[in-house]
Amino acid sequence: MWRELLPIGRHPDSHGYRRFAWTGADAECRAWFKAQAESRGLDYEVDRNGNQWAWLGDPGAGDAVVTGSHLDSVPDGGAFDGPLGVVSSFAALDELRARQVAFTKPLAIVNFGDEEGARFGLACVGSRLASGQLTVDQAHKLTDGEGISLPRAMEAAGYDPDAIGADHERLARIGAFVELHVEQGRALDLSGDRVGIASAIWPHGRWRFDFRGEANHAGTTRLVDRHDPMLSYAETVLAARREAELAGAVATFGKISVEPNGVNAIPSLVRGWLDSRAADQASLDQVVGGIEKAAREYADAHGIALDIVRESFTPVVEFDHALRDELARILGEETDITVPVLGTGAGHDAGILSGTIPTAMLFVRNPTGVSHSPAEFAAEDDCVAGVLALADVLEGLATS
Ligand code: HGY
Ligand code: MN
Ligand code: MN
Ligand code: MN
């Protein structure tokens, strides 16, 4: 199963994955999911927002136990972020069938579309649409780097962009959603555990900084006559690091676009995207506020016009305590080890849905701690431990 998925969307040079929403690689991943579902005799469906579901039992019965994750990636992402959760869900179901478990509730495996937001700039589009956190109008306005809108991209992939929208009735039939995910950090490696349970997701957001200056000749324009937006941008990036260190948070300028983007032209526009996250809202406000203040000072100093747009924001997610404790009880009984509970700075569909349905997450040890990079890794025996833990949890939840 894993080997069939591995080559899809993998870049030959970087060995990173480029599985962006509504592209060919995405279509191949979706075909893989459908084949896995149908080969197990599961009822396969695609919901109005393009999320894929594989059902065991009657979806209409309600109180369903759902597991799964996403198959899309960031640019040059790793092999595990998302796919590990989907593959482990199918493997856990195989394990439960081998145990001849008689489920008393419907079970489903889900692949949420466009979780990384790599193409259209907004994370968790599939789960945000389903839960009504992203309106149809907002979704229709999303465009990629080539100016292709989300509706056009969906249409080109054979999906109806006018069908999208909140899916409250579907979510109301779900009793619990448990997402297994590779850990994006080293807490489990440091504690020596194979599997952990998520406690919370840090508040985090994405801000776009538009620095507008004056295009001019790189060779003939005196330094004193320049209004170079690249300088204000560069100083802002350094300020972001300082502010994050002060607040014990993280701040990243990982994406930039420059116009006209010529080697011998002083830019007219430098557009930089900030991703910032912190353990609590006050710290996040402190970091972003400090960065914005510094950016405005630098822009003023160079005669640069600055616009700052908050493109997305996810408040702190405290996972459902009862479900989290139930997972700890089940795993404690089954594996007689205490499973550590840990927070994360990474966003997830389980986080987006936590305000709508009870959700929980299981993390699998990643000895490198690296994610959103081809260096992301999880050892086979840890992945197997994750599958068995997920199987125990699903058995506990779907037979209770
Ligand atoms: O950006 C995130 O935290 C998630 O991987 N989409
Ligand atoms: Mn990710
Ligand atoms: Mn992920
Ligand atoms: Mn996620």
UniProtKB/TrEMBL annotation:
Cite the entry's keywords alphabetically.
Hydrolase
Q: Which CDD domains match?
A: M20_bAS
Keyword GTP-binding applies: no
**Sorted alphabetically, which Gene3D superfamilies does this protein's record hold?**
3.30.70.360, Zn peptidases
Please verify whether the record's keywords include Hydrolase.
yes
Provide the family line. Answer: Belongs to the peptidase M20 family.
Q: What is this protein called?
A: Allantoate amidohydrolase
**Native organism:** Streptomyces justiciae
